[in-house]
Design goal:
This protein is α/β, with parallel strands linked by helices. The chain has 2 domains: 3-137, Rossmann fold; 148-272, Rossmann fold (3-Layer(aba) Sandwich). The protein has helices at 12-28, 42-45, 49-70, 122-129, 160-172, 192-205, 222-232, 256-263; strands at 3-8, 31-37, 81-86, 103-107, 134-137, 148-152, 176-183, 215-218, 237-242, 268-272. Strand 1 (3-8), helix 1 (12-28) and strand 2 (31-37) form a beta-alpha-beta unit. Residues 2-138, 146-271 form the UspA domain.
C-alpha cells in the first residue's frame, strides 16, 4: 500500500475507521492521510464572491480547530499523518484522490431497519468510483488483527485481477486468505467436478494460491453463504470484487455485494474489477 486514506466527519463511525487505519499503518509502515470534506451549502455558494470568501474562511477555521481536536488520540502517535481539508461538493470525488495502490477506509452505520447501507450513501459513491480498494468499518473492533480473510467470488476470470490485488495487501498485513465459492440450489447448482474445474482455471491465472484450500459452501443465497461461512471459521474480514461504476459484482443475480456489506457484522473490503 502506498498510503491509507480515511475520510472523517468527526462521528463515532469515522473514529472506528481511523483506529483501523492506525492498526494497518503500524503493520505496513504506511502513511495515513485523513480527509475532512467541507461541503459548502447552496446558500453560501449563491452569495457574492466577497461574502463567499469570508464565510468560507470562517467555516474552514472551524473545521481546522475541530480537526485538530479529533486527531488528538494516543493511538495516532508515532505515525506519519497528513490532515487534509477539501472543499468538495460531492463526496464521491474522494475517489479521485486515491491511486490504485492506496487503501480507503470508511466508517459506516450499515443497515438500520429498512435503511440500507448501499442505497445512495456516500460510501456507495466511493466504492463505485474508486480504483483503490475500500474498507468499510461499521463497528468498533477491540481486538483488530485481520488474521483470516474470506475472499468470496464466483471464480470467473474477471475476478482474477481483484484477487491478485487483494493477495498483495493481505500478504503485507500478514493475513491468511480463504477463497470461497458459494454453491446454490436449483438453476445455479454446480457439481463438485464442475466447481473444481472452475477453481483450477481461476488459480491457473492467479498470481498466488490462497493460504487454505478453496472452500465450497452450500446455502440458499450467496449472501447467507458468505456471511455464514465467514462466521463459521471466525474470519476477521470479508473481501469482495466490485464492478466499480457499473455497480457491485452481482455474482449471480441481484446486488449480492451490497447485501453482504450491508448485513455483515464483519468489516468488508471491496476490490474493483
Amino acid at each position: 500500500m502506498n498510503k491509507i486514506i480515511v475520510p472523517v466527519d468527526f462521528s463515532e463511525h469515522s473514529e472506528f475507521a481511523l483506529y483501523t487505519a492506525s492498526v494497518l499503518a503500524k503493520k505496513t509502515n504506511t502513511e495515513i492521510e485523513i480527509v475532512h470534506m467541507l461541503e459548502l451549502s447552496e446558500a453560501l455558494l449563491n452569495k457574492s464572491e466577497g461574502q463567499q470568501q469570508l464565510e468560507s474562511i470562517y467555516y474552514l477555521r472551524l473545521a481546522e480547530k475541530k480537526f485538530e481536536e479529533f486527531l488528538d488520540k494516543d493511538y495516532l502517535k508515532g505515525f506519519k499523518i497528513t490532515p487534509v481539508i477539501k472543499h468538495f461538493k460531492v463526496f464521491s470525488e474522494l475517489a479521485e484522490m486515491a491511486k490504485e495502490d492506496d487503501l480507503i477506509i470508511m466508517g459506516s452505520h450499515g443497515s438500520s431497519g429498512v435503511e440500507e447501507f448501499f442505497m445512495g450513501s456516500n460510501t456507495e459513491k466511493v466504492v463505485r468510483t474508486s480504483d483503490a480498494p475500500v474498507l468499510v468499518i461499521k463497528n468498533k473492533v477491540a481486538d483488530l488483527d485481520f488474521e483470516t480473510v474470506v475472499f468470496a467470488c464466483d471464480l470467473k476470470e474477471e475476478n482474477v485481477a481483484a484477487y491478485n490485488k487483494a493477495q498483495k495487501i493481505f500478504n503485507a498485513i500478514g493475513a491468511k486468505v480463504q477463497l470461497l465459492y458459494v454453491n446454490l440450489p436449483n438453476d445455479y447448482f454446480m457439481s463438485t467436478h464442475e466447481i473444481k474445474e472452475l477453481t483450477e482455471n481461476f488459480l491457473a491465472k492467479a498470481a498466488k494460491e490462497p493460504d487454505f484450500p478453496v472452500a465450497y459452501y452450500s446455502d440458499y443465497t450467496v449472501e447467507d453463504g458468505v456471511i455464514n461461512y465467514s462466521n463459521t471459521i471466525s474470519a476477521d474480514l470479508i473481501a469482495i470484487p466490485t464492478h466499480g461504476r457499473t455497480g457491485m459484482s452481482h455474482f449471480f443475480n441481484g446486488s449480492i455485494g451490497e447485501d453482504i456489506a450491508n448485513h455483515s457484522t464483519l468489516p468488508v473490503v471491496t476490490f474493483k474489477i
